[in-house]
Amino acid sequence: MKHYFILSAFILGVCTASAQNFTRQDTLRGSITPERAWWDLNYYDLNVKIEPEKKFISGHNLVRYKVLNAAKVLQIDLQEPMQITSVTQDNQALEVTSDGNAHFITLKKEQVPGEFNTIDIHFSGYPREAVRAPWDGGFSWKEDTQGNPFVATSCQGLGASVWWPNKDHMYDEVDSMRIRATVPKDLMDVSNGKLESVEENGDFKTYNWFVANPINNYGVNVNMGNYVHFGEKYDGEKGFLDVAYYVLPENLEKAKAQFKQTPMMLKAFEHWFGPYPFYEDGFKLVEVPYLGMEHQSSVTYGNQYANGYLGRDLSGSGWGLKFDFIIIHEAGHEWFANNITYKDIADMWIHEGFTAYSENLYLDFHYGPKAASEYVVGTRANIRNDQPIIGHYDVNQAGSGDMYYKGANMLHTLRQLIEDDELWRQILRGLNSEFYHKTVTTQQIEDYISKKTKKDLSAFFNQYLRTTMIPKFEYQQKGSSITYRYVDIVEDFDMPIRVFVDGNEQWLFPNSEWKTESLKGNELIFDPNFYIETEKI
Ligand SMILES: [Zn+2]
């Protein structure tokens, strides 16, 4: 997202499944099955008609793929109660065998490695209604204050197959796609990418959006409402970026004031992370009837045109009210989620840890390092350490909600260890160029950072990502003599920490063994930027 944090991780507990009873459906959804592995997604042409008065959708999705290995059976996902009504290849009807939400299509034509083929999947039904968008997603069938339909989709975790048929696994992103949404003619659809044409057809209009870049499944969205729009050109690192805003008419003036934070966001994030990753597709903020979501190039917004997170400061430091949480956080995901995407949702911290951390970098850019530090340190109050940040692989299972602010504090701690802000910035930018438009694993991120910092960070990442232990620095002090060690650590964890002694910086090098050394004075203050616990014994 999605910013899961407050509602899902902390109140609804959606991502804290500790009972590990995974089903065959979890495996079909969450693993690279043989029926997925042999073909590589190339293009979707998704056509969908939305009938809000019936809460019904219907359409077809043309799926073009490249054959990697010869095979006969192909898996497509679509969740009940949506139904696949027919599948064809080269106008020949194909047989479909269903196992819950996984549908196995037996192809007739020989599948020759290297060739591109297309299947056309027709579907219809009453899609799952979002229970609490965006955390428990689906279709949000709402109305605006004037009584017009105001409809939006959200589906991270749940999966895009909740409303349209696709290859619903994150490892394989489609290279480009078209979304043609047909809606009642007095309303408008806003989807990802750029609007290429609008066709009127009786009582309906079809909005034809094209996404020129790879896009992850949950990023695809339709938003239907009585939208008005305005826009601007942003003069960025890769030239002029088309920025557009779609809002309800009654919020136009508020939006014009609040969305001034968009160029501020772009300025800060291009500095830290490199060019916005989707110049060809533009950037949009789209008002929706729920809080918001990182839909690629059409970030959705429902934060009531106020700073903070629904008016609250998640850090308790005051700095969280200096920015609109949804603009900054969800747009931060354009770099970490949409540009660099997890292959498996178990590694969701790559999206949420870096993006929660981006809130602090936004403050750093516009308000300075003290503000940034106070903010990220303040967000520690939200950390629960209930279970590890990394979840279970191959079953579509995210880890702990701590992926947000424990993830952010881990990255902030890492910045201290590197002691070179310019190198740190080059690493953040380097991640975005090395893994440009790619899907990745945690290991790839770890290896890249270790290589660039010339430090073996494996124990560091194991500690913070794979356990719930916070390193505890135990110490005894007599005058200027200090004896110390770490407890609650993984093997080989030996992270140095910075302290201030009589106001002067000093580094200490604890590990699991007691050691004694001299401080350069008597008054000891720990640098709060390191996410550790301390105990004087
Ligand atoms: Zn998020």
Automatic annotation (TrEMBL):
Cofactor(s), by name: Zn(2+)
Where does this protein hold Zn(2+)?
Answer: H329, H333, E352
What does the record say about how the cofactor binds? Answer: Binds 1 zinc ion per subunit.
SUPFAM superfamilies, per database record: Leukotriene A4 hydrolase N-terminal domain, Metalloproteases ('zincins'), catalytic domain
InterPro entries reported for this sequence: Aminopeptidase_N-like_N, Aminopeptidase_N-like_N_sf, M1_LTA4H, Peptidase_M1_dom, Peptidase_M4/M1_CTD_sf
**Entry keyword Methyltransferase:** no
Which N-terminal residues, if any, form the signal peptide?
Answer: 1-19
Instruction: Select a single GO molecular function from the record's annotations and give it.
Output: zinc ion binding
Q: Which Gene3D superfamilies match?
A: Neutral Protease Domain 2 (1.10.390.10), tricorn interacting facor f3 domain (2.60.40.1730)
Where along the chain is the active site annotated? E330 (proton acceptor), Y404 (proton donor)
Residue intervals of the Peptidase M1 membrane alanine aminopeptidase domain: 262-464
Which UniProt key words apply to this protein? Metal-binding, Signal, Zinc
Q: Which positions fall inside the Aminopeptidase N-like N-terminal domain?
A: 42-209
**Pfam families assigned to the protein according to its UniProt record, in alphabetical order:** Peptidase_M1, Peptidase_M1_N
What name does this protein carry? Peptidase M1
